[in-house]
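Protein record

Derive tokens from sequence
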Amino acid sequence: MLEHDYNTQRKKMKLPEYGRSIHKMVDHILQIEDREERILAVKSVIDVMGMMYPYLRDINEFKHKLWDHIAIMSDFKLDIDYPYDPPKPETFIEKPRLVPYNQSNIKYRHYGKIMETFIAATSGMDDDNLAKTTNTELLANQMKKSYLMWNKDAVEDSKILNDMVELSHGKVRPNPELRLQEVNDIFKQQPKKGKMVTPSNQSNQSRKHK
């Protein structure tokens, strides 16, 4: 009865893009005792690997890469004189570098840092400024949307309004009777009803009307 040769039972390939035949050639070279014969065999395999990328094989940097790949496929056990410094195993087990993250403190992550920035900008507006009232309503509805996207639970409007007061350090106090959009309306594709006003574009708009 013939035994089946399943891929799952085979030795894992270091560089699958070269295929199993090239890996078998490298494994065979490891068994060659004569050093000079080994180097000749490696050069032959390098030529075969280069044929897979004929438009690159004459470029020095690519040749260097092929020799590096030979070292990797041999699990760095190939004893030959390399024309280039071979890669070291520790290069491939080096721990990834830590990615520096923004460590700015965010009171409520579901609202995000940008929302806090907009609230801070609105806080600096005069209380009798119509733009402040408009911003407050727009921001409150966006806060409700952000809350629902993060928590997936229903939320009372009073919770959103109280959070706005807290985030603004009491400088933005929406009307307690303000009714925010319903959940179904929030997630519908609707045309924009207003543009967020900041102190900078507010002054620009004022100049235009003069």
